[in-house]
Amino acid sequence: MKVYVLRLGHRIGRDKRVSTHCGLVSRAFGADGIIYAGEYDPHMMDSVKRVSKEWGGSFSIRYEKSWKNFVKAWKKKAGKVVHLTMYGVPIERKIDEIRNCKRLLVVVGGEKVPPEVYEIADFNISVTNQPHSEIAALAIFLDRYFQGKELKKTFRNAKKKIVPQKRGKKVIEHK
Amino acid sequence: MKVYVLRLGHRIGRDKRVSTHCGLVSRAFGADGIIYAGEYDPHMMDSVKRVSKEWGGSFSIRYEKSWKNFVKAWKKKAGKVVHLTMYGVPIERKIDEIRNCKRLLVVVGGEKVPPEVYEIADFNISVTNQPHSEIAALAIFLDRYFQGKELKKTFRNAKKKIVPQKRGKKVIEHK
């Protein structure tokens, strides 16, 4: 199973934190990597890379100048494409079918999603038909795809690890 | 059942979009309202109010100068407090117990959460022990609390309503 996330239309400054959150959520919820499109923002990508290095696992982060070429190449290699959009078909109706796709690209948009995205996607999927957040939609999508197992995922070679506490913070650091 | 969200430590500018997303996710995933603390930011709150007015329901949005007084008053009225933090006890272990609380305040922090929050909370709960996003943590928490039913929630008096589509967008507008 390979699941990657494509974050469309990043804008330096304005989208910094939302795009960072998209990367961190992708990693924490079990995706294999994130591809950023839009404006090239090495600082933002570095912050995701730093977290990934400290907290372990083998999550990949990279930039792609042409999202369209990337998606076309992905589909040629028998990959499927899910576009998360509030206008799409409710996730509950499609998730079992989508779970059969073993190479999946999950596309999350920014403010303005090009109309072609709706055409090129194999599935346009909504997480509620209400306006909310691409970060939340991504988290719920991955949660349903991995059926909650992602919450227990462990990350290899972590330098930092949390020991859950009722109160306060406990972090073990491996140097 | 009453569920409110308290967003701590909002900062004008830097947190605008993340705080807006917290509000929209709270609404879309079935909470009754959000209380913002930190810097007073009527523009940010207005953007959540506008969505709420257009898309229906009775979600409340307000500002609270002292989060501490608010939480104390909440607890006096037999309300319970859940603080979402990556350092806390995994949600899977506690959600059934938390679901028995019928008046719930879900606290989500910003960058710096005062240590007292960990003390005053009845539950410090993690959604994975990995660094990711308060928006994602909030979405997953509400999803588990409402057991997925929130995805089918309908909103009364909506001026706009989406008709889910395989491709493209369809919105019905009531004037």
Please characterize this protein's 3D structure.
- The structure is a homodimer of 175-residue chains.
- Chain A has 175 residues and is of the alpha/beta class.
- Chain A has a single domain (2-173), classed as Alpha/beta knot (3-Layer(aba) Sandwich), CATH 3.40.1280.10.
- Chain A is built from 6 helices and 8 strands.
- Chain A has helices spanning 16-28, 42-55, 67-76, 91-99, 115-120, 134-145, and strands at 2-10, 33-38, 60-63, 80-90, 103-108, 123-126, 160-162, 171-173.
- In chain A, strands 3-2-1-5-4-6 form a 6-stranded parallel beta sheet. Chain A has a two-stranded antiparallel sheet with strand order 7-8.
- In chain A, a hairpin with an 8-residue loop joins strand 7 (160-162) and strand 8.
- In chain A, helix 1 packs parallel to helix 2 and helix 1 packs parallel to helix 6 (134-145).
- The longest helix of chain A has 14 residues, at 42-55.
- The mean pLDDT of chain A is 97.
